[in-house]
Amino acid sequence: MRETVMSGTGQAVFVPGEWRSLASCLGLSPRECGIVRAVFDGNSEKDTAQRLGLSPHTVHTYLWRIYRKLHVQSREELLVRVFAEFRSLPPPTPNFVRSPPRNAPATAANARTAGTARCSLNR
Description:
Elements lengths: L15 H11 L3 H11 L4 H8 L3 H15 L4 H14 L19 H6 L10
Helix pairs in contact: 2-4, 3-4
């Protein structure tokens, strides 16, 4: 069961590790991810600017660039796009599963699972 860690940072929807995976798969910078999280919180551009210490114009510019990068045209489409990407992420690995030792010989199975998370909607 997912527990809300903190409201006001998009964490009511995704936990920090999920945000990192989504940012990586979507090609978002940390600042862009912060803007997307604010959209998930329902914040206005003015509120987002105040929270992040930016001007409203800068937030508007970031949001416009995020729309272009993700090929969306509205906040609603942005939410759908991020949720669609989240659904394509592989399930999290339980904490009790161990990675192969660092000095273990490379195998085809290890090579397939190494690297970044699978991103179905990358361009």
